[in-house]
């Protein structure tokens, strides 16, 4: 995964932005895939193929992503600039080892989102038992032993 960082800023990852993850497939990639598969590619097939590739990747950092939406773009550099203006820093996700990192030109953008991990919900929930209190005898905070 590669992060586009403005070289005029100090080194490090900018924390004032939300991150938007994306990958780009060019027309050459589509043409090659159609020749290889002997079928016409449509958006639904591509989204399913990318989701399967992300899910089955050996790289665990890719397993958490799914395609949110796709769009054709004639000016990817302008798309990146527009997102940065809206405080969303685009991060290119390389789904194939030989995939070029595309930050300008044209292509089909696939915007990704992080799928929430089911295990995180269990870890964040905690339950602390309340003291056994007869509510009829409680007189405000002092009646509960000074605790809420």
Using brief descriptors, characterize the structure shown.
148 residues; alpha+beta; five-stranded mixed beta sheet; 5 strands
How would you summarize this macromolecular structure in one to three sentences?
With 148 residues, this protein is α+β, with helices and mostly antiparallel strands. The protein contains five helices and five strands.
> What Rg is obtained from the alpha carbons, in whole angstroms?
24 Å
Which outline best applies? globular
Question: Given the structure, what is the number of helices?
Answer: 5
Average pLDDT works out at 76
Largest sheet: 5 strands, mixed
Low-confidence parts: 1-11
> CA-to-CA gap between the ends?
47 Å
Query: How many beta-strand runs?
Result: 5
Strand content of the residues, in percent?
15-25%
The SS-based structural class is: alpha+beta
Q: Approximately how much helix is present in the residues? A: 25-40%
How do the helices and strands follow one another from N- to C-terminus? EEHHEHEEHH
Strand order of the largest sheet: 1-4-2-5-3
């Amino acid at each position: 995964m590669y992060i586009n960082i403005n070289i005029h800023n100090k080194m490090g990852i900018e924390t004032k932005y939300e991150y938007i993850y994306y990958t780009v497939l060019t027309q050459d990639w589509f043409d090659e895939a159609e020749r290889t598969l002997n079928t016409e590619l449509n958006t639904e097939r591509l989204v399913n193929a990318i989701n399967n590739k992300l899910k089955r990747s050996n790289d665990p950092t890719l397993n958490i992503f799914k395609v949110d939406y796709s769009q054709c773009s004639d000016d990817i550099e302008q798309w990146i600039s527009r997102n940065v203006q809206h405080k969303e820093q685009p991060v290119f996700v390389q789904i194939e080892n030989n995939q070029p990192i595309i930050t300008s030109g044209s292509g089909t953008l696939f915007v990704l989102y992080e799928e929430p991990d089911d295990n995180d919900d269990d870890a964040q929930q905690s339950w602390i038992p309340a003291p056994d209190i007869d509510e009829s005898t409680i007189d405000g905070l002092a009646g509960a032993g000074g605790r809420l």
